[in-house]
Design brief:
Layout lengths: L1 H29 L3 H19 L4 H8 L4 H12 L3 H9 L2
């Protein structure tokens, strides 16, 4: 049993090391962390959904992978300086 626990611990540490290495490589290549890159992709997808669907913020948050609608709205505002609702309204005027 102790040997299995040690192997699990070793595997866990190895996966942590691989993730750290992956993060460093991505950061070196594109000067963005993988987490930030993923956030940008999610926000771009949410922009498209706001323009082309009548999904609620909760539905969009779920579809693109945010924790909840509040997190989605907060990150959207931080990136675009406009709320998702304001963005939807302004895109309908075009």
């Amino acid at each position: 049993m102790q040997k299995n626990m040690t192997e699990i611990g070793d595997a866990r540490q190895h996966s942590i090391d691989l993730r750290s290495q992956f993060d460093r490589i991505v950061k070196a290549l594109i000067n963005l962390s993988p987490a930030y890159l993923l956030r940008i992709v999610k926000l771009k997808k949410s922009q498209s959904l706001l323009k082309t669907t009548d999904f609620t913020n909760e539905q969009i948050a779920y579809v693109v992978g945010f924790e909840n609608a509040a997190q989605f709205a907060s990150l959207f505002f931080d990136k675009y300086c406009i709320t998702p609702i304001q963005y939807r309204r302004s895109s309908q005027l075009i």
